[in-house]
Design goal:
Chain lengths: 352, 560
Amino acid sequence: MENWSRRDVLKGASALGLAALARPIGAAAPPAQAVTPALIDAARKEGKIVWYTAVDLPVAERVARSFEAKYPGVACRVERSGAERVFQRIGQEYASNIHAVDVVNSSDAAHFIVWKRDGLLAPYVPEDVARHYPAEHKDPDGQFATFRAWLCVIGYNTNLVKAADAPRSFADLLDPRWTGRIVKAHPGYSGTIMTATFQIARDLGWGYFEKLAKQRVMQVQSSADPPKKLALGERAIMADGNEYNMFQLKEKGDPVEIVYPTEGTPLIIGPNGVFKDAPNPNAARLFQSYCFTPECQQLIVDAGGLRSVHPLAKEKPGRRPFAGIKKMKDDPAGVERDAEAIKARYTQLFRV
Amino acid sequence: MRVDLSRPVVIGFAAILCLLIVLPMSWLVYFSVTDHSGALTLGNFRQLVTDPVFVAPLITTAIIATTSSLACCLIAAPMGWLVARTDMPLRRTVRALVTASFVTPPFLGAIAWELLAAPNSGLLNQAFRALTGAPRDEHLLNIYSLPGLIFVISCYTFPYVFVLVANSLDRIPGELEDASSILGGRAWVTARRVTIPLALPALLAGALVAFLQAMTLFGSPAILAIPAGFHTMTTKIWSLFQYPPKPELAAAASLPLLVLTVLLLRAEHLILGRRGYSVVGGKQGDPRLVRLGRVKWVALGAAFIVLLNPVFLPYFALLNAAFSRVASQLVSFGNFTLQNIHFVFFELSSTRLVLKNTLVLGVLSATIGTLIAVVIGYLTARKAIAGHRALGFLATAPVAVPGIVLGVGLFLSYTRPPFVLYGTLWILLIAFVTIAMPAAYQQLQSAYRAVHPDLEDACRILGGTRLQALGHITAPLLRTTVIATWCFIFVGVIRELSAAIMLFTSETKVISVLIFDLNESGDLGAISVLGIVMLVVTFAVVILANRIPTFGGRIRLRDA
């Protein structure tokens, strides 16, 4: 049977009378927007903002609460799920003409290609983004920018595995001694894992996943879950998962350790964007601006364990510096092209 | 001027019932025989029976349903007998505890069993290793497996069998057993030749109900089967709605569940129908209690060991995880925390919305559902109008529709004109009312039968209309049943997951969906707190309902 393409799902939405972008092609990005008292007032009148995000729930709620503390009178509600679920949810809601999302954050940067193509995003450039963000981390048309970056790492439980025995590479995970001891998240749920699966399959080939599928992995959904399963002691090794959850757990004293695989570590980019039909357009813009402030960026680094591309955000001591890690190259356009095939192939290999 | 509103009322209620059940099922059938472009095809069904991606879940589901049903009977039948026909102590307590496993949402039970019997971090496996000195990677139980799933499903399905068997044993007249003993039959002979054969139809019916429950359950397989790397039919149907959605295939995959449910319910009706005649007697004596002697303590012990599994152990695990920094560690001075409670009530921004949605839906569904059941029960019990049979059939029909199938049908019906209800609480309300209707209707219909029509006739002779008679005479007499039905629907709504998971949007999330979401990101502490909140609310309502005399064990809760 023919599958629906990403385009089809959102076609209904884009057809909903959204006027074409008023800006002629080739023009410069819209001017930077400062947070003005008028914007704050308008946001207060709306009273709330709904943030659809794929970032791990406690981190998302930290961001929301800190926003509320800075702008009392504007409540921020977090709607969290896996990026692929968030994408499906927005598509399904927009197809039914339900406009509930104000600002979106995805761990699958490819989603922004689709949303932008379908004309769902509003151009809005916060001052910090205009002034500080490197060009590769902001949309030239000003519709989104990198809210967070992190890596999809390997990990192990230090009570169950000695450092000397721990795997150092993806290839090491295929060792028979890890059979039945690995936990792994799902690319049909998590944008992190979708992105990582693309990069690993591109660089190492699908043969890696074919062999990994024979390791009797415990299949969880969110890329935030494998680190938690390690901390519980439920599995000794995680084949993939969020670096930022590992930092959080490790710094809390849980027995987990990160491995940056020798083949290179998948790099994940999580942009933020404002929806054009946001029900709370002013609060949405205020929140979008807040997300890129050094204050918020430092919060997601310090408390969240994430990496920031804001040059003013400082890395937390004790963590491996971002620049020094060998990374796999991110390629949202490639993920956009291959996502459906990746899901289908993954389901075939791992059976769920 | 008096206006008799009977006819419009009947037509109106018939229309409501059609909207609830006929419309979604029509869309379901329509979608199942069309392809993506809308052309007629049988391709969906062909794929269903040839593609291994679908064949494997079908087989798995058949295995799960059959073995769970058997396991439930093996456990529930002896327990039902102990409670109904022996002098085992604490019989009422045991019944109450079975009710507790009855109202525990199965998906919550599944999560609690993850905490208990995950192979490495499960509390029971840790205890096993501590007691035996077994090495770290050895385990006693693995909940992420087919047997594990069957076990958890059975834990929350056996009450259906238990209730049917115990109630049937309650009703078997003592004379029949007396006759056996007078003729020289000893206790065991009497049990084997009189009691068991009389209870057998109820047991068979229970087996069918358990089979249906196990087959149509969504939450437990989604939580336990997917980590183990396999699907059941319900989780497969659900996954067909993930991106990229394939509603035609989902509709086609739903139909076998629907057809099988109809067939099995038909079978249940035949069996129970026959049984209805067999024990009708004159004045009945109280059932005789078998004296167990010292064995009664053994029996009680066994009953409590059974109840460990659906009630004591899972509740303990949830309570522990709610207050422990690490869900897999027992609460101690070192790791006691209130962080989970703080997180759920002060940080989690969807808590308030979700609780509000759940309560609003619970109250509205219970009120509207009870109202519809009151009217339709009356019309059919009093044979008040032509077409009452059709009304009765429509009100009972949803029993044959598994929650997830109803969810798919409603999604297909109400995301397109003329009724675009997706994204509102209405679509969930329709789902919940539909799901609750059969049991609510049956409750009230039998209650009406207990009120003699003479009382109503008196009102009509004095010039009242049917509606006035209903309002002034019958309704007050039925107050207790009505309240009990209301509570029953309310509890059912709170625990419903399988239809809600297909129908929610971010603004219309309910507590069961939130718990399911949290499980996917592994937030066990928050789940435990929300789960405990859910149980507290449920038990408050159940206890309230239990104070009302007519709230018996005959009520059948739907799966979640």
